[in-house]
Design goal:
The structure is a homodimer of 319-residue chains. With 319 residues, the first copy, chain A, is mainly α. Chain A has 15 helices and two strands. Chain A is globular. Chains A and B meet through helix 4, helix 5 and helix 6 of A and helix 4, helix 5 and helix 6 of B.
């Protein structure tokens, strides 16, 4: 019988990595290769780690839920493969985007196949409501991405609108990762609800951190160009909040940049976002949602896994 | 209580059309609009008609399975939306392709959302194994499309290889349409197996008919350019079979066309495929598979629906 693993995060991370390295394969060799290449380029595996920790925090054994955890990362990978096609991205996690090496056709099909392969396995091996949670989550992710597309360059976007997009596009998969882990770990109704609330709040804060990094990180650590969100006219939360507190000339500058800006203008816009309080106000929001995530854990019984989930939420405050 | 509908095909078709017109909506208005536009452009609705007929042939009531039938068409629509993105298609069913009107980003997301929305509904409302059959089918479709991509321009492709691709890419959804209809109609194990075998054979013959039409139809009735498959270097069954019986100069001509051919060369290649027996040999294969489809119906109890399924198979021989 498998021993319960120690609940320190490096171990959870290593478990997921080892699973992908040794056990991941689909029935289509070309798609397996495309997915493995993206997996080997890195990533923090936060979603599967949250699934495993949520299962242990509810009394389950992480080793029994490695497949389920892997599906959370693979849903994420499939959405990334499709994102890179529609964005014509050249790099992802510092290596060539799938579409660059395999072409758009294979990339669209690889994402579709991966979604289908995940659902095929989940419907065969997991009880209700796990298959429904995962498919509803994928619908939310796509819905959020469409909302985001429609909001491109919309300088009147409110913080509430932003949170709705982030909740669907990003936080829904974190919520589902925690929820499915809690379900399969044998959690009570209250524990499952607590894990879900944790994942939702964590995911919103995570997206906000991601928005900040787009302005403050260097390309090497980011794995993609800095200011990429601005170049795509995305309404990130630092921009939304800077526009709320900024004056008319800042707004006019952003408008001009969105109309016909050049990449060379990005550093100046980024400085103005900071000067208008966008980064500071975003950090306050990150504190708020990370705090909500931590507070959501209250109903869970004391455990090392619960502490690690809390530590993940605290980790969002480091940026 | 709903009356059982008369099992004539126009009625089944009208039922599906009325369902799409009056009842189809998703939670995302932009995606609903994109899908409705594609639905209103036409299509024979063969997959949902087969689901409804299979349910009635197994003793069920078609009116109770309209949602399930609609999902079969919508899976097909979602794959078409993605196909048109990767093919950069300009038209589909005679109207603008989704990607032309809505852009590649929305098209990729619309396809993803539609898959997710279907699985969300199916996992919520249908018992095992229906959700698994549908997700496994989508995996097969993608797998078949990847196989087809890898076989582009491969003049050594055998008839067996071709049938494997057609079985996955096209026939799997017909098989699933019949299978799920039979399951939900309350069919016995043997009836469900019979319906599945019917759908598989029907789908292979259907793909072969589609291949023939690409060479023999006119653009107006086809809804897309004639010889499109040749332009894309697809190994259609008439080409595969013409190469088997043709001489070296025909093969060399096809090779040259695939290397650097122009659209203006397509009519000459099409004539040579016919002259080398490709169309006649394909019609023999269509007879074979349509016959298998008809024969597969034998275990089903006598019914008007069974006769209509047989008539669908016979209809493949008209081309």
């Amino acid at each position: 019988m498998l021993d319960k693993v120690r609940n320190d995060e490096p171990t959870m991370h290593a478990l997921v990595e080892e699973f992908f390295r040794s056990s991941f394969t689909t029935d289509n060799p070309l798609i397996t290769e495309a997915v493995k290449r993206m997996l080997s380029a890195g990533g923090k595996r936060l979603r599967p780690r949250i699934t495993l920790l949520a299962s242990e925090a509810c009394g389950g054994n992480a080793l029994e839920h490695l497949h389920l955890a892997a599906y959370m990362e693979l849903i994420h990978v499939a959405t990334l493969i499709h994102d890179d096609v529609v964005d014509n991205a050249q790099t992802r996690r510092g290596v060539n985007a799938t579409a660059v090496d395999f072409g758009n056709r294979v990339s669209v099909l690889a994402g579709d196949y991966l979604f289908a392969w995940i659902f095929k396995n989940v419907t065969a091996n997991y009880p209700s409501p796990v298959p429904h949670v995962l498919s509803a989550t994928l619908a939310d992710i796509c819905d959020g991405e469409v909302l985001q597309l429609r909001a491109l360059g919309d300088l009147d976007l409110s913080l509430g609108d932003y949170v709705e997009v982030a909740s669907k596009k990003t936080a829904s998969l974190f919520a589902a990762s925690a929820r499915c882990g809690a379900i399969m770990g044998g959690g009570t109704h209250d524990e499952i609800a607590a894990a879900t609330t944790f994942g939702r709040a964590y995911g919103i804060a995570f997206q906000m951190v991601d928005d900040v990094l787009d302005l403050t990180a260097d390309e090497r650590s980011l794995g993609k160009p800095v200011g990429n969100d601005l170049a795509e006219r995305k309404m990130t939360v630092p921009l939304v909040l800077a526009l709320q507190s900024g004056n008319g000339s800042f707004r006019a500058h952003v408008e001009r940049f969105f109309d016909d800006g050049q990449d060379a203008d990005i550093p100046a816009i980024a400085r103005e976002i900071d000067a208008n309080g966008g980064l500071a106000a975003t950090r306050a929001q990150i504190h708020l949602y990370a705090g909500q995530a931590r507070a959501a854990l209250q109903p869970l019984r004391p455990s090392a896994a619960k502490e690690q989930l809390a530590a993940l939420a605290d980790g969002l405050l480091a940026g």
